[in-house]
Design brief:
Three copies of one chain form a homotrimer.
Chain A lengths: L11 H18 L9 H11 L5 E6 L3 E2 L2 E2 L3 E10 L5 E4 L14 E6 H5 L2 E2 L21 E2 L2 H5 L5 E11 L2 E9 L6 E7 L6 H19 L6 E7 L3 H9 L7 E7 L8 E4 L7 H11 L5 E4 L8 H4 L8 E5 L21 H20 L2 E4 L24 H12 L1 E5 H8 L3 H13 L3 E3 L4
Parallel strand pairs in A: 7-8, 11-12, 11-13, 13-16, 14-15
Antiparallel strand pairs in A: 1-10, 2-3, 4-5, 4-9, 6-9, 10-12, 14-16, 17-18, 17-19
Helix pairs in contact in A: 1-5, 1-9, 5-9, 7-9, 10-11, 10-12, 11-12
């Protein structure tokens, strides 16, 4: 058994710096027009590969991945709707949300009636552009704000979508941080959304800084980070790694981590995996509002990781869940929608979660009959007053429940004390020979 | 395995018609003077036998049924208390509640002091006549409203009870609707109360229309309806059918289903039988207030069906439970106390329950690794906006949890979606080969 | 199987008398200067031995008890702090709390700066003297009220502690009331605190009267009462009786039972022992406010009895828990802090608990198919009105759940009826042959 690494505490200053760093990364990624394939994803992954040794995989169009097929690759250079005076009334250069993702090429004059069938708006938010896709049905379309839409009064418009939809590749990124064991923790985020900050860029940024943090830390577990196009990317990776999935002991999908909402943790399909209990514990002690939700089979790529044939212990960590806020999948999910300190607090919770994975273990009390005399060993500070100090309590909890059936996390939950406090007590008791570590099950 | 029948939806119009029909049946049954034996029961069952092929059983006085003995048969023709001027101050012809059920015959002048010992009133409700019985102790008595009681100022009264208590028979009705299997659903109601609408006639009426509904429907289960005198009738039937009770997979006692109160479902003694979970599910989605109560060993004939030597999975479905409203066992439980639309809604819930029994099954996802591509198969409607349609959600829930351990009802409970929605999704997925049905356990 | 003894009901008068008797016992014990060893404990136990045949055990200094060693014996005759005019400004003769328990002897003039390091006060309660100990670190000290402390203005003081700390013995008391079986109930209280009423004397008094009550009663169980110095006394007893601990079926630590607060029951470490369920039941029906707390590894000697190597089913019964009231471990825990009627109600709950231990059993319904006809046997009183009498309900509950899996306590919990009511129903049904007792498991 290896010695358990000490927890790494991030100071408030470090958190501030991390928040700013994540925000800057998001600013750099924001303008890129991502989709489930194409150069937007490549450019995104290349930016990440400047930070850490990311492997970039490319899988050809037509590859069978489980029940799905890798689609054609889509790329786009320009798009507009032009009026009779040559004005671009809808202009891809102003926002990459203006084009329905995966739109097939078109260049012709279109009567307004026909055009309207290809326009998407949000009348309830007349200044926002919706985000729409048509990955698996060949079609074309524009998204625009409702005010723009109402101003379309001409009989016909010149329409251009200078895109290509052709044999090519699906691209995804993978980073493996090898640890002392081959047991793995999977961290996954999606990289397929264009200029949307909370929904995809916040997850990418938190995953990136978590990877950098873990890269500097001694690791019991190996950590595998996936930066994948939603659904098809996760399926592609799963399809190629079926034989190795048993290594994954814990996993987390990251998304929507920069907004002002309270934390949300959505449990894995198992509902009682260690990641489920550990994240609930982290949030209980994080000092912010939070909500722990049961698993549901819609959301992000936990849908795929938790599908019944895999049933991996993978939860999803968010702030405001997708679909519960109006900004979801609109142009309002921009740089003003997220905040550095929100990203930083999200990252801190990820670090605390990982610290539990790294340090959690079950011990055995070597003096289980009666309490051992802690005072004699100088590890029990009896203060003057009637209050038992938290650290003392943690010693007693560890001794009382280290009967071979309870881990440090179990004891932290039962006692109501933070994992870190109980873990510190465990370390003290280990040093004094009052605990021994159990062989891992 | 047989194909699962489709659910039968009752339209609002049908429900209206059913409510009126039940009310009319109750109006026809209301005047009859029922008791646990005698012509009142016979007349009641004969009226039902005009509607469906009811078997009418007669069991002789003295027959041993479990720990009990079938009592003498009781019949009554007339009864009164007459004053010195010959006025019937208490008159059986005005209400059959005026005579204590099972009163022995009497015809003599009775001093007021003696008479008072045989009079029952409700001072807290001075206009109501209480309902009293003396089945297993030979006695006589009158029930009257308190206002009548206070007006009794003469020294003696002429008393007549023209009844007979003699060797005879106990009568009960039974209807078996054979299904595709010999597994049975038991529906039971009591038929032993005189002019009381909610307490006994509402249960009879709902049972009758449920029987007629099932008679028109394809049935996986066989349905056995019992119209029995309370306690002694249920014991008589149980005593005669001990060897066949194993066929009963689900059961329901019906009572008090026409009043204005919220629904009450009292669980079987097992507490986790399928009927318990299914009825709780039906009520959760019925749109009215409801209460699910734990089993208790008093109430209606679920006392007998759930006695520990039988322990059948039989719950009790009511609106306001007996004993919790003042009208219980009084003349105020009359035709004004019940309403057609209340009866209709009670019947609808019974139909929904039966639909669950008929259709519930466990399936296996044939593509359990990752989500199958529903869009390609044309069974996943991705709408324009951010909202996933309920039907789409149900597809995902079915796929995610059809791992061989969960039935449609399990998945409906977990998802919070109505059984019918999830069942419809199951049918769609079956048709596309994405589910297979498990062999029944 | 032995017949079950009948419950002993204490009338209100008896409770009054018991309350006064406990208070008088506490008045007699209050002046004695107890510590974990020494003549104070001996004198306390001798007073108890006048009431019942208490065995007094003495264990030599230096004896190894589990991880601990029996310490030197401490005794004290006098102590003071004297000013320059010879006034005792702190005087042990006024309160034995003035000296830190286990203070080593000292007799010399001490500069005020040095003296202050040995003084303990409670600035937030300036009229109270704190209670402090230094059992396992040799030191000396005085406790005084903060007003006294502020008045210390001289440059030096004459200090005397006329104590002895030397080889000797640890003393504890033990009373075994043999019952019809060798299965034991353990009742334990601590006897090591000086003039503190609620914290130690109330527990001693309740234990003493419970012992006297049980001494007069037929007993299925044997009862072992321990009057032990906290921690070291319990460890000493446990160390000497390891081979016999399997006899202990239930146990209770008594402390803080005289104050005005609501009842608190702290569960055993097992959390679902019979004592845990039984005490929760007693409190649910006791008519006072109460709180049932989960086990925690600090508190009184349940810490030792429940340590993981023993894990005995021992809970702790209190009113206000230690440490949650300011009077804890101060001179304010005096004779005005406790009340006879509070002690009496605490004793009553102990008696009710013991009645459950004595009488609880599982029975088998001999007529499990349908309900047996109770009316025929004259044991079911059907009242005129609609209300089922509680005693009748208890008969039905016993019959319905006496299926070999449920004890009287189980049925009392499920029904919401008090144990005594259900137990009375069980006795009635046994007498009529409707129940048989199961062989004990």
């Amino acid at each position: 058994m290896l010695p358990v690494p000490k927890p790494v505490e991030a100071s408030a200053l470090e958190a501030d710096a991390a928040g700013r760093e994540m925000f800057e990364l998001i600013e750099a990624l924001y303008p890129i027009c991502r989709s489930i394939t194409g150069d937007g994803v490549r450019q995104t992954l290349r930016l990440l590969a400047e930070r850490f040794p990311l492997m970039i995989h490319e899988v050809p169009t037509g590859t069978q991945v489980l029940d799905w097929t890798v689609p054609k690759e889509w790329n786009i250079r320009d798009a507009y709707v032009k009026d009779s005076r040559g004005n671009r009334v809808v202009d891809f250069r102003k926002s990459n949300l203006h084009v329905v993702s995966y739109s097939v090429p078109i260049r012709r004059r279109v009567p307004i009636e026909e055009l309207r069938e290809h326009l998407h708006t949000l009348p309830e938010h007349p200044d926002w552009i919706p985000y729409r896709t048509s990955y698996y049905t060949e079609n074309w379309g524009f998204c625009l704000n409702y005010t723009q839409y109402l101003a379309l009064r001409e009989k016909e418009y010149d329409v251009l979508i200078d895109s290509s939809l052709a044999e090519g590749r699906l691209t995804y990124g993978e980073l493996l941080l090898a640890g002392e064991t081959t047991d793995e923790v999977l961290i996954s985020c999606h990289v397929c959304h264009p200029s949307l900050c909370n929904d995809n860029l916040s997850g990418i940024a938190v995953a990136a800084l978590l990877a950098e943090h873990l890269g500097r830390t001694r690791r019991r577990y190996s950590y595998r980070f996936l930066f994948v196009p939603g659904t098809i990317g996760a399926l592609t990776w799963l399809s190629a790694h079926e034989a190795e999935l048993h290594k994954i002991k814990h996993g987390l999908v990251l998304a929507n981590l920069g907004d002002r909402g309270p934390f949300t943790y959505k449990k894995s399909r198992r509902g009682n995996a260690e990641v489920d209990r550990a994240m609930a514990h982290v949030l209980r002690h994080c000092g912010e509002d939070y909500h722990v939700a049961e698993f549901s089979p819609y959301g992000y790529d936990e849908r795929q990781y938790c599908s019944p044939g895999f049933d991996l212990p993978v939860g999803c960590f968010m702030r405001t869940p997708e679909q519960t806020r109006p900004e979801y999948h609109t142009s309002a999910d921009d740089l003003t929608f997220i905040r550095p300190e929100r990203l930083a607090a999200s990252l801190e919770n990820c670090k605390s979660l990982v610290a539990i994975f790294e340090q959690n273990a079950a011990y055995l009390n070597t003096h289980p009959k009666g309490e051992p005399q802690l005072g004699r060993r100088g590890i029990y500070r009896k203060l003057g007053g009637p209050d038992l100090e938290t650290g003392n309590l943690a010693l007693l909890w560890m001794l009382s429940f280290s009967d071979g059936r309870s881990s440090v996390l179990d004891i932290a939950e039962r006692s109501g004390l933070p994992f870190r406090t109980v873990q510190t007590a465990a370390t003290t008791l280990l040093e004094h020979g009052l605990l021994t570590q159990l062989a891992e099950s």
